[in-house]
Design brief:
Helices cover 37% and strands 16% of the residues. It has eight helices and eight strands, in the order E-H-E-H-E-H-E-H-E-H-E-E-H-E-H-H.
Length: 262
Amino acid sequence: MIIDTHVHLDDDRYIDDVEDVLKRAQSANITAHIIPGADPKHLERAVELCNKHANIYFSIGVHPYDAQNYDEEYLLKFATHKKCIAVGECGLDYFRLPDDETEKRDVIEKQKEVFILQIELAKRLNKPLIIHIRDASSDSKEILLKYGAGEVGGVLHCFNADEQLLSLAEENFYFGIGGVLTFKNARKLVQVLPHIPKDKLLIETDAPYLTPHPHRGERNEPAYTTFVAKKISDLLEIPLEKVENITTSNAKELFRELKEVL
């Protein structure tokens, strides 16, 4: 079985057919889903899905692109829900920064401030982090180490396949592998994958984004994690069943609540 550790089922693109999406996932033996908290406006929808489906969980957090909308008091309203199992999707993303140097500096500082706040929140709640890193590896790693994020651990999502982040495996961090691994231009991730400890590998889709081959150009969905698992199996030359068992075990280790139900 496979656990999709990062899927935006609360996204507007699933409003009309989320039940069909979940049925296809079940048929593909996807046994659990974690909805990362990226946009606070979608939290109520995420909770509704979790209340309706036993195998859906969620986290509370704000994506770095929405750092200016961080409202901890609002997030805390959802923190005690039994299906809230992490904090994030938080982190740093320098891919789209303003051209103006003053504005750029302000955006970066705001992202850092809100990232640190969510690390501290995770430590207070004793929940792992879901971390988004894009073109910001050095600053992200420095903050994670400086503020003791390893106390709760977490998963690095969208981490640019940056080798300098691999040492974070020793600090209780896992690495989410998604559809990008199947892309023809995924040379960097293909090279890095064998260097990630197997007990720190997780599978994710980031659906509806980053759809794996052979479905690129379509809306992504949890059932497509099977293509990611198969690619990992091929590249690491280990049986597909072993990939599924390892990544499922890892997900349960990081997201402790999953152990009780799966």
